[in-house]
Amino acid sequence: MIRRDCGSDWLLFSQIDHARIAGELALLWENEAIQPLPISDQFLSAVIHHDAGWQEWEQAPTIDPETGFPRDFTEMPMPVATDIWTKSIEHCRQFGMFPAIWVSKHFTYLAECALESRQEDAVDVAALETFLQQQRKNQPLWQEDVLDERVEELVESGYRMLQLFDRLSLWMTICEQTEISAIDVYGGGTLQRIPVSPFEITFEPWPFRKQEIRLGVPAKRIPQKRFQSDDEFQEELAHANVETLEWVIANK
Q: Are strands 241-250 and 212-223 parallel, antiparallel or unpaired?
């Protein structure tokens, strides 16, 4: 779940919708100035479904007992997060070995980052080390099942491009962006993300086949407050107003 500040309220987004936005961007990607997608059909499946493991947890999301706030995806206990990541990887295996490897490498990267920052929590460290051990075992085994002489290049390009679309979608949804920022594109070069207004964005160089893209994501609005229990939070969420945030991405 993504928790976005909005005045005295929060807007809560589903990870499933975040992944869908990433997939819609990937679907329209590619022109002569930009690195093409690897194995586009499998890649699009990987991007759209890379957070599928969140679906069960988001049906009954929880609060952080220390703050009483709804848990943002960055605030999960690692035994819970690694279980979600594992389910996401397993879900993507149905689309082929490449999607499984790409998503596994994506979450391996996140686990390595978390391991550096959570050394004080023995439970988190144990969950992360177990997850990393399993994924580092799986990845070469899955790679052996791929009958493609370009396998190493496709593994790396797919993983890096998956990270690109994940970050583009998160950049849009986690907060209102006001500053120009750059993101590296696999294969060389950088992409400038340029906010024109709160819900209008352009990119340089322009990376899409269409000159204008409209994207929308539903969000539940709830008041910013300390909840006393998961049940209280879930009751508030059940009666929350749903609104749609919409962005226009246009070639200026």
A: antiparallel
| Residue 105 DSSP one-character state | H
Residue 240, classified by CB atoms within 10 Å of its CB into exposed (0-12), middle (13-18) or buried (19+), is middle
Q: What Cα–Cα distance (Å) separates residue 133 from each residue in 82, 93, 107, 137?
A: 12, 18, 12, 6
Residue 54 amino acid letter: W
- Model confidence pLDDT, tens digit, residues 96-131: 999 999 999 999 999 999 999 999 999 999 999 999
pTM over 0.85: yes
Q: How far apart are alpha carbons 24 and 21 in whole angstroms?
A: 5
User: Residues near 41 by Cβ (< 8 Å), separated by ≥ 6?
Assistant: none
pLDDT-derived band at 33, boundaries 50, 70, 90: low
Task: Return d(Cα 178, Cα 168) in angstroms, integer.
Answer: 15
Give me the torsion for CA of 148, 154, 159, 161, rounded to 10°.
Answer: -140
Give dist(CA 55, CA 88) in Å, integer. 9
Task: Judge contact between 250 and 42, C-beta under 8 A.
Answer: no
201's tokens: 């964005």
Distance of CA 191 to the CA centre of its chain: 18
84 backbone dihedrals φ, ψ, rounded to 5°: -65, -45
Q: What's the CA gap between 136 and 182, in Å, rounded?
A: 30
Which DSSP symbol is given to 74?
G
Q: Which structure tokens are listed for 110?
A: 């996140």
Residues 6+ apart with CB under 8 A from 28: 208, 209, 210, 213
Which 3 state secondary structure label does DSSP give 222? strand
Q: Max CA-CA distance within the chain?
A: 56
